[in-house]
């Protein structure tokens, strides 16, 4: 802090940080990874980053909706697991076609949302406690159902279902297209529609929203169910790509989904969770994961580093907004 | 408002408020009938010994809640304490396994724990992250660092001091229980019998009111995170003693039980707020239920479901009771 004595310089640096801080860090990471391993910047690797981020983006979209209502959803991973489980079981046990299986998966995931909605709206439990409860119950149900957590594999799944993860349209993987479509729908609904404004209104000032006549309970019910159904779609992609249901797999995305939403919120001028910010947050996390992978670090080191980078990124994003 | 509430309604409200306690009592009675061996001094001692790490992290958690307020997202919450605990245990185990000396192991683990606490404090009090977000992200990072330190391996520890914590007894009571009881009393004294403790609680009650009388709620919250990290560090010894070493994955269950016990504890306080003794009692009840169901032969996979349902029942009744009062 040798600049401390000359306020204009300090102000200038502060100004640059406030405006471009996160962007600079973003660019710094890209430069660092590219310098370490030139493969990082190749087109195929960029596609890998986007493809690898699809599932997280879908989950983070659901989380964005819930955080926008003023809550938090710790059970997004459970909705993902249920989506995968219902689809795999429908195909394996009931010989369902791929469309029926996909619908079963989304319906299964929605059960998680219905449970959250009952708790949050019906019993007025705080979203944190409600969804942590759903999380534990959902985890336990999966353990009971799979007798301890063994995966349920289904090698001979219908081609249509397999396509969800493996197919492509003009070289763009189908899962990327699904994630991008969902992001677009979320953007239109949350940022451009009346319903979206109501969601933001109740997220910012619940009492004011109630006074203004916004049907808060109804919006919450819809939001929790839609968010869970969205996460179930991520589960379908996961199940299709590894051709099995792995219990409790969704948990590993929880922290990243929350982080992506809050990095995105911190980038927003008024600090609101928003779809574009979430997309930026997911891409940032995707780049960090991919870059660390390319550095060839050992798994534990990589895990620790990405955890620390996540904390630093959140701190930086929030600090940047606070200074504005 | 309260003067106009008819007595019958008030009785009903009190019943609703005590419902979680009644449910727990009912469950314990049920376990006692189903597994007759459960209600004995031996099992009581076992419950106490098994619960020691949870009791400690609950003490830390309740300090942060008292300093930051009851709001689960924006108030005081520190989900990273269980991670600090396993990190301290991991460092101790790693250092002791390499014959590095007990004092040095303690200093290293303490340093790491306080670093976690200081980071939490900086993130929340200085940068302004919500405590839930900050401590959840820290949980992930610290668990990652611990897995790096221990290479995700189980490390056996047979250092005499850890074995002493596990096995020794004074006047028939396990040393571990005595140590944690002493620590609990010290924490109680600090929070309720000193000027510092009352100032700390003032910030949790109302930041505005505390700042108006010239207290720095932010500074007290920062200190609370450091104290929480300290309890996490101490809990690390008891995790080592309980498991005769450090194993990966202990943190998840510890976090679940910490959240359950701390907020369950609020149901035992007359004002329905998180308190130190409430959290300790909550931790012991959760331990008793866990061991009780296990001794009844209930499938382990069902335990998560039962605990999850318990959390929801408790908080739903708490919400009902609050609505009744409002």
UniProtKB/TrEMBL annotation, chain A:
Keywords: Cell inner membrane, Cell membrane, Membrane, Transmembrane, Transmembrane helix, Transport. InterPro entries: ABC_transp_permease (IPR001851). Signal peptide: none annotated. CDD domains: TM_PBP1_transp_AraH_like (cd06579). It is found in: Cell membrane. Coiled coil: none annotated. It is a multi-pass membrane protein. The keyword Cell inner membrane applies. The keyword Nucleus does not apply. GO terms for cellular component: plasma membrane. PANTHER family: ABC TRANSPORTER PERMEASE PROTEIN YPHD-RELATED (PTHR32196:SF21), ABC TRANSPORTER PERMEASE PROTEIN YPHD-RELATED-RELATED (PTHR32196). This is Ribose import permease protein RbsC. It comes from Roseinatronobacter ekhonensis.
From TrEMBL, chain B:
InterPro entries: ABC_transp_permease (IPR001851). Keywords: Cell inner membrane, Cell membrane, Membrane, Transmembrane, Transmembrane helix, Transport. The keyword Transport applies. Its main location: membrane. The chain crosses the membrane at residues 12-33, 39-65, 72-96, 102-125, 132-150, 170-191, 221-241, 276-294, 300-321. It holds the Pfam family BPD_transp_2. Signal peptide: none annotated. It is found in: Cell membrane. It is a multi-pass membrane protein. GO terms for cellular component: plasma membrane. The keyword Transport applies. One of its GO terms (molecular function) is transmembrane transporter activity. This is Inner membrane ABC transporter permease protein YtfT. It comes from Roseinatronobacter ekhonensis. The lineage of its organism: Bacteria, Pseudomonadati, Pseudomonadota, Alphaproteobacteria, Rhodobacterales.
């Amino acid at each position: 802090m040798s600049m401390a004595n000359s306020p204009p310089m300090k102000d200038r640096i502060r100004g640059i940080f406030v405006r471009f801080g996160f962007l600079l860090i973003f660019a710094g990471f890209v430069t660092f990874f590219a310098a370490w391993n030139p493969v990082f910047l190749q087109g195929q690797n960029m596609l890998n980053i986007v493809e690898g981020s699809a599932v997280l983006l879908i989950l983070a979209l659901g989380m964005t909706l819930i955080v926008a209502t003023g809550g938090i959803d710790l059970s997004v991973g459970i909705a993902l697991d249920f989506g995968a489980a219902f689809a795999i079981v429908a195909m394996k046990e009931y010989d369902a076609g791929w469309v029926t299986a996909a619908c079963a998966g989304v319906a299964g995931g929605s059960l998680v949302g219905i449970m959250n909605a009952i708790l949050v709206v019906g019993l007025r439990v705080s979203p944190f406690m409600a969804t942590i409860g759903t999380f534990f119950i959902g985890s336990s149900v999966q353990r009971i159902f799979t007798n301890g957590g063994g995966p349920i594999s289904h090698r001979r799944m219908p081609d249509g279902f397999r396509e969800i993860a493996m197919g492509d349209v003009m070289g763009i993987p189908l899962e990327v297209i699904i994630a991008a479509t969902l992001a677009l729908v979320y953007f239109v609904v949350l940022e451009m529609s009346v319903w979206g404004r109501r969601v933001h209104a109740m997220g910012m000032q619940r009492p004011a929203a109630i006074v203004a006549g916004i049907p808060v309970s109804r919006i919450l019910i819809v939001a929790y169910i839609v968010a869970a159904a969205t996460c179930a779609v991520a589960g379908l992609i996961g199940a299709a790509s590894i051709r099995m249901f792995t219990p409790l797999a969704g948990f590993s995305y929880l922290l990243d989904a929350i982080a992506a939403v809050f990095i995105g919120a911190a980038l927003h001028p008024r600090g609101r969770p928003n779809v574009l910010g979430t997309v930026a947050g997911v891409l940032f996390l995707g780049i960090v994961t991919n870059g660390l992978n390319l550095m060839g670090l050992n798994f534990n080191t990589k895990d620790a580093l990405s955890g620390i980078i996540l904390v630093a990124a959140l701190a930086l994003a929030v600090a940047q907004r606070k200074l504005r | 408002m309260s003067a106009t509430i008819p007595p019958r309604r008030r009785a009903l409200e009190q019943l609703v408020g005590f419902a979680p306690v009644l449910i727990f009592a009912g469950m314990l009675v049920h376990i006692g009938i189903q597994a007759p061996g459960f209600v004995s001094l031996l099992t009581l001692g076992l419950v106490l010994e098994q619960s020691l790490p949870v009791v400690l992290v609950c003490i830390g958690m309740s300090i942060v809640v008292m300093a930051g307020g009851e709001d689960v997202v924006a108030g005081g919450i520190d989900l990273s304490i269980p991670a600090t605990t396993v990190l301290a245990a991991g460092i101790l185990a790693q250092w002791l396994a390499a014959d590095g000396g007990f004092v040095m192991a303690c200093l290293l683990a303490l340093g790491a724990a306080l670093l976690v606490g200081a980071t939490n404090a900086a993130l929340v009090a200085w940068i302004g992250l919500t405590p839930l977000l900050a401590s959840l992200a820290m949980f992930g990072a610290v668990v990652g660092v611990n897995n790096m330190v221990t290479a995700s391996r189980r490390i056996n520890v047979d250092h005499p001091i850890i074995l002493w914590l596990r096995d020794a007894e004074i006047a028939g009571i396990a040393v571990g229980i005595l140590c944690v009881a002493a620590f609990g009393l010290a924490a109680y004294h600090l929070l309720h019998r000193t000027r510092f403790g009352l100032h700390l609680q003032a910030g949790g009650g109302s930041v505005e009111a505390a700042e108006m009388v010239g207290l720095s709620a932010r500074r007290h919250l920062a200190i609370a995170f450091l104290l929480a990290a300290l309890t996490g560090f101490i809990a690390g010894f008891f995790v080592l003693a309980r498991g005769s070493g450090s194993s990966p994955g202990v943190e998840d269950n510890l976090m679940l039980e910490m959240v359950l016990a701390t907020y369950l504890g609020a149901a035992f306080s007359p004002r329905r707020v998180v308190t130190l003794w409430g959290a300790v009692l909550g931790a012991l009840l959760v331990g008793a239920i866990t061991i009780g169901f296990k001794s009844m032969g209930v499938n382990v996979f069902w335990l998560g479901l039962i605990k999850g349902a318990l959390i929801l029942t408790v908080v739903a009744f708490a919400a009902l009771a609050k609505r009744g009062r409002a």
